[in-house]
Write a structure and sequence with these properties.
With 314 residues, the protein is mainly α. The chain has 14 helices and four strands.
Length: 314
């Protein structure tokens, strides 16, 4: 068990560092080549590199429940620990991002829930999920507002970090992310051997959230100073949080199924419920009231905790 903990901690740290370095390196390269914020923003809308790398390796090993749990657990974590907790602790309610940015991710998430409902996701279903994610990106690209803001966030972020050439930074990121993913999966394997937990629960409640920690700052609401009204850029983290439903929840799950068809356990199936449960409170508040605050954030966190308490018994 000690070795499992060491592998999980070291693996998570390496994966988070590598994912961050890879993202910064790639963004530096494409911006230096003349890419616009809108084009970069659409490529990274809802994308967090850590969970994608981890679920790809899990799927390649045939660990279907790990892969499914990572895809759905990472987005549930980002919405809960980022958007939900941020709203819960904020003294000011947040105006809604564009309605299309809030409502549209629910469609790919619903498709992902249907796909995992029978405990098996084949490659045809995987293609369908990836195509649906592609359609989502195309629609968001036409709208343009959210992708432009996401690109600006990445442009500013890419200027920070290690002061090394972009290609070298990307290479360092790839190596660290791969090593971290393998160590994290190895720790997950050993945890299963020494506990009564299921692979779906470990993937959803532990591996997915750990892989997504690096993306927390991009989805955490940051209220403006007292006296200054909310601006569009202040609402961007909420749009990025719900976009992970389409990217990780649907696109990531589809990618995993393309790599290897997914036979999953009950906890991994139930992970779709976790993603939907944490999405609904803020989405309903944004769409019905035009803003969300502490009440929606509190319900989100409570539902996430309730899911963990129920799923641990699968």
């Amino acid at each position: 068990m000690v070795l499992a903990v060491i592998l999980i901690v070291v693996g998570a740290a390496a994966l988070v560092f590598g994912s961050d370095a890879l993202t910064r390196g790639v963004c530096r390269s494409v911006f230096a080549a003349g890419a616009t914020p809108a084009s970069v923003g659409i490529a990274f809308l809802g994308l967090e590199v850590g969970p994608v790398v981890l679920l790809a390796f899990a799927a390649a090993r045939g660990d279907a429940s790990f892969a499914t749990g990572i895809a759905l657990g990472s987005t549930a974590y980002l919405i809960t620990a980022g958007l939900g907790a941020g709203l819960m602790m904020s003294r000011r309610s947040m105006p809604s991002p564009p309605a299309i940015a809030v409502a549209l991710p629910g469609i790919p998430l619903l498709a992902a829930g249907i796909a995992v409902g029978d405990g098996y996701v084949n490659r045809i279903e995987g293609i369908g999920l990836v195509v649906m994610f592609g359609i989502y990106l195309a629609v968001m690209g036409v709208d343009g507002e959210v992708t432009e803001l996401r690109g600006e966030q990445l442009r500013k972020g890419s200027a920070r970090g290690l002061r090394v050439p972009a290609l070298l930074l990307s290479a360092i990121g790839v190596v660290a992310a791969v090593v971290g993913a393998l160590a994290l999966l190895g720790g997950g394997d050993r945890l299963l051997d020494h506990s009564g937990l299921t692979a779906g629960f470990v993937g959803t409640a532990l591996l997915g959230p750990l892989a997504a920690i690096g993306g927390l700052r991009s989805v955490l609401p940051s209220p403006p100073p007292q006296g200054r009204p909310w601006r569009a850029e202040d609402e961007e983290p909420a749009a990025q949080a719900v976009a992970t439903l389409a990217c990780l929840g649907a696109g990531g799950l589809g990618l995993a199924a393309l790599i290897h068809p997914l036979h999953i356990d009950g906890a991994a199936e139930f992970a779709a419920v976790a993603a939907a449960a944490v999405y609904v409170p803020s989405a309903v508040a944004f769409l019905a009231r035009g803003r969300a605050g502490a009440a929606a954030g509190s319900v989100t966190v409570v539902l996430a905790v309730a899911w963990v308490l129920i799923a641990v018994h699968f």
